[in-house]
Design brief:
It is a single chain. By secondary structure, the protein is mainly alpha-helical. It has a single domain (11-135), classed as Winged helix-like DNA-binding domain superfamily/Winged helix DNA-binding domain (Arc Repressor Mutant, subunit A, Orthogonal Bundle). 60% of the residues lie in helices and 9% in strands. Strand 2 (67-71) and strand 3 form a beta hairpin.
Length: 137
């Protein structure tokens, strides 16, 4: 696993050293929804990540053990990216960011509906989603 130079012993700072850039959590978000993605799938996201940035973030996330890659079952020229357990463990963090964002930003109808379902039983949602993601490892 790639050793990231830490700025301090603070867990917030150390975590941000791994995934605190503008793009890494969006890649992780996409993997949580899709379970696995190809490079091209990430390029199709509405945030429009540049190819050089995507390649760099995927490499860092893989080297730090947050994602893994494997061969694509239908194409030898493609790779599938998946979350590792370390990446799956970021699910509660992402949900809290979603809930914080709901409080301060105008959301699309799709995100409003999603969060309405999450808030009905947040613990149950987290447990069920974690289990689904673990089954795809």
């Amino acid at each position: 696993m790639k050793e990231i130079k830490k700025r301090s012993g603070c867990p917030v700072s150390s975590s941000l050293d791994l995934w605190g850039d503008k793009w890494s959590l969006l890649i992780i978000r996409d993997l949580m929804y899709a379970k696995s993605c190809t490079y091209g799938d990430f390029l199709k996201s509405e945030e429009k990540i540049a190819t050089n940035i995507l390649a760099s973030r995927l490499e860092t996330l893989e080297e730090t053990g947050i994602i893994s890659k494997s061969g694509h079952p239908e194409s030898k020229s493609k790779v599938l990216y998946k979350l590792t357990q370390k990446g799956i463990d970021l699910l509660p963090v992402l949900m809290e960011i979603y809930l914080w964002g709901e409080k301060y930003f105008e959301l699309s109808g799709q995100h409003q509906a999603f969060l309405k379902e999450v808030k009905k039983d947040k613990a149950g949602f987290l447990a069920a989603t974690t289990l689904k993601l673990q089954q795809s490892i």
